[in-house]
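Q: I'm building a small set of examples for a reading group on sequence design. Run inverse folding on the following structure and report the sequence directly after it, with nothing in between.
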């Protein structure tokens, strides 16, 4: 089929060809029943052909006026539907293929109405789902932001903990050094304390020895004092006895002299 072929054009030429054929065949059929006058057969054939062609044009016009006008209504309604107007219905009624086309077209419009309603309902559902999805996405985004903030805090805390751990390690190392130094100083102090204790014990021993000597000296002093006192006492007694002796001696000498 050619790209620019037309059914109506083909129908028109079909009617014309049919009329021409009928006009050409009718004189042959009529010759069996009619005796033509001399020279009238050609005119009869020409008249039949012209009448057949005329009948073809009349048939095409009648077809166009009766059927194609209704089909034009369906075509106009189809154009309206194609433009989105579903408010109209096809009013062509016929108990043949044209009526079937009209009913099918009205059924198609009803189906489109139902589908559009379903689409609108689906669109409403999709809008509700989209709103819910947007809300969920907002919640997920908010939760993701909160998780990101928490993660940043954790990262900062880990970094701070790492720094604190490094500082703690340095502090522990420094404390260890100080502890070792304190231990060394403690050991030195213990040595010094032991040496001091030994010195103190030695000093105490010397003090005890000195005290013993002092006690001995005190005892000797006391003995010397006692002895001195005894000597002094005896000297005093001897001092008192000597004059008595002298007087006795003097008395004795006088007696002898007498």
């Amino acid at each position: 089929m050619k790209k620019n072929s037309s059914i109506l054009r083909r129908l028109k030429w079909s009617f014309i060809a049919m009329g021409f054929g009928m006009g050409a065949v009718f004189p042959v059929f009529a010759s069996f029943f009619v005796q033509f006058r001399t020279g009238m057969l050609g005119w009869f054939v020409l008249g039949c052909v012209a009448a057949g062609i005329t009948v073809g044009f009349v048939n095409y016009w009648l077809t166009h006026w009766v059927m194609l006008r209704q089909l034009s209504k369906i075509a106009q309604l189809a154009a309206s539907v194609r433009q989105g107007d579903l408010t109209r219905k096809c009013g062509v009624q016929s108990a043949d293929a044209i009526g079937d086309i009209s009913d099918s077209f009205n059924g198609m419009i009803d189906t489109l109405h139902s589908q559009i309603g379903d689409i609108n309902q689906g669109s409403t559902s999709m809008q509700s789902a989209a709103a819910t999805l947007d809300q969920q996405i907002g919640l997920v985004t908010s939760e993701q932001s909160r998780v990101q903030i928490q993660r940043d805090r954790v990262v900062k805390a880990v970094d701070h903990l790492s720094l604190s751990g490094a500082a703690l390690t340095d502090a522990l190392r420094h404390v260890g050094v100080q502890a070792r130094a304190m231990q060394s100083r403690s050991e030195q102090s213990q040595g010094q304390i032991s040496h001091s204790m030994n010195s103190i014990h030695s000093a105490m021993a010397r003090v005890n020895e000195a005290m013993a000597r002092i006690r001995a000296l005190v005892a000797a002093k006391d003995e010397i004092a006692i002895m001195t006192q005894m000597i002094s006492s005896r000297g005093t007694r001897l001092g008192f006895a000597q004059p008595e002796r002298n007087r006795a001696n003097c008395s004795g000498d006088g007696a002898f002299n007498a």
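The longest helix spans residues 97-257.
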